[in-house]
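fyi for ur records
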Amino acid sequence: MSAVTWGRMRTFLAVVEQGSIRAAAAQLHVTEPAVSAAVAQVEKHLDSEFFTKAGRGIRLSDSGRIYADYCRRILGLIDESEAAVQTAERGRLRIGAVSTVSEFMLPRLLASFRRRFPEVGLSLSVLPRDDLFEQLAHHETDLVFAGRPPRGSGLVTRARRANKLIVVSAPGRFPTPLTATWLLRGPGSGTRDTTLGLLNQHDASPPTLMLGTHGAVLAAAKEGLGVTLVHADAVSHDLATGSLEQRTLARTPLNRPWHVATTDNPTRSALLFLAHITSRDEVGDTAFHLDNRQAG
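which gave:
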């Protein structure tokens, strides 16, 4: 196995993620020949080709796609194992969250946790829901805040918090939401998928405007560009101050609780964080409720 080192696995994954030898070399701060040689050595050892020519670029082969999946799991487990042997109060915690949680709920939880356990190393990835669960399954994160994990994923919901999706718009605008323009998040967003499903249930095809980020969607709604389906947690202040108003639409509000998910063997620091965010004495009304429900 001397040809397949952790470093060469990471180099191969950099090429996969960046899409080219040149971009991978720039990310890793090494020369392009060094990246090419590392990948070639692993290909030779495994008697496989990981990339094929695609015009002026390269494309991942079926073998490369399979091997990349294994590499992500192996390297994720290596990082996880280093944290697992540390005490909970001195370990490392890799958190993933969808943007709504990262902007409106997580800062308060992280701040109170940091005050109690200042020696825990924290990192945060903010990504679409599907990407977060993929990272978690590959052991690239330890704990994820999002919607319900996919069925059959083997991931475990450790805690939940009630949450609803509501339709909102600028004050006095669009009293009949199905005739308005609907403001959408980008592909991969769970809220976007739920919005399109809701419109399908109403057999409606209103104009849509994709704005990408959660913040852009809310800003557009406040300016009167249309209506949007949004987490009630994210707009509680806007509703209270009158910059947004809730709209009445059949089949809404939608019950969509937040889930905190891990693998079936969470690290000590992940369990410590779970104990913290489920303690009302520590985090007040942002507290989650313990659960232990495996997806699928």
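The chain has three domains: 6-74, 86-162+257-294, 164-255. thats all i got for now
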